[in-house]
Design brief:
The protein is an alpha/beta fold. It contains 11 helices and 8 strands. The strands form 2 sheets. Strands 1-2-3-4-6-8 form a 6-stranded mixed β-sheet, with helices on both faces.
Length: 281
């Protein structure tokens, strides 16, 4: 899935991500490799990512996302964070198939899937609310990012699916955070029936907090919400966040084990053949 329009919808301008939110880089990043950008304005941290292949997430972007979330979480100037992806196509196509097919051993496989684990852990442990803007379809690992958000807003066109079983794996790493957000029954349904769920289904089951007719309506609501949150008591929000994610304290070990499970499974002939067929569609 290619993004039809590489220009991000208007919300606020963004800078290329640098530690401690200092100054923009002198030269733009290599667009072919994707990018992560972050900056803080008026108490609001803005975090966006982009990859030319449907906003997929290779290991390099996962690493940058985890670092950026952690950095914004410890930046006293940011009292709330908005996460988004660029373009007018999919919100995120999930794991990079190119990197999945390049994995040659268990260690590489575990390290790749650990990238999703690190982003999820960074999101749920950041002492700030993370509001995620879902402007298009979301598949596979993308649902882990959405579920790890504290609040998510989506458009009617933002269908979602857990595609892992269809490519011979399973939503092992993202499973705990999705189950935590929408419950075991809804998670099981998505995992077993790896087909698209519309945005209304996602809202009914809690994956999306609110659904809007179009991006303009969604962006107006996002701006209103995060402006209010930026003026709210940061201690109260930090304590609420701990309440939201109570019971996840053991997830470092859990997600590490799940990453090993996925890393082993991706090497099987069945999975490699399934991914090759999926890429050929």
């Amino acid at each position: 899935m290619a993004i039809s329009d590489p220009t991000p919808p208007t919300l606020l301008p963004s800078l290329h991500y640098l530690p401690r939110m200092t100054t923009p880089t002198a030269s733009p990043p290599n667009a072919a490799l994707g990018l992560v950008r972050a900056h803080v304005t008026d108490g609001i941290g803005h975090l966006e990512f982009h990859h030319p292949k449907g906003n997929a997430l290779p290991a390099s972007l996962l690493k940058q996302l985890a670092e950026a979330v952690t950095e914004l979480g410890h930046d006293d100037n940011a009292r709330v964070v908005v996460m988004r992806s660029q373009g007018a196509g999919p919100f995120c196509a999930g794991a990079s198939f190119d990197e999945l097919t390049a994995i040659s051993n268990v260690e590489e496989g575990q390290e790749f899937f650990s990238g999703f684990a690190r982003v999820i852990l960074a999101m749920i442990r950041a002492p700030k609310f993370i509001v995620t803007r879902v402007h298009g379809k979301a598949a596979g690992g993308a649902l882990g990012l959405i579920a790890a958000s504290d609040y998510s807003m989506a458009v009617n066109a933002a269908s979602a699916k857990l595609s892992e079983l269809a490519v011979g794996i399973g939503p092992f790493v993202v499973g705990p955070v999705i189950e935590h957000k929408i419950g075991l029954a809804a998670f099981s349904a998505m995992a077993v029936d790896a087909d698209w769920r519309d945005a209304q289904w996602c809202e009914r089951h809690g994956l999306y907090s609110r659904v809007y007719n179009d991006a303009a309506e969604m962006d107006a609501s996002i701006n209103a919400l995060v402006t209010t949150l930026a003026a709210s008591n940061p201690d109260a929000m930090a304590h609420l966040k701990k309440v939201f994610w109570s019971g996840t304290e053991h997830w470092d070990a859990l997600l590490e084990n799940r990453a090993a499970m996925s890393g082993t499974m991706v090497l099987s002939d069945f999975t490699r053949n399934a991914i090759a067929k999926f890429k050929a569609k």
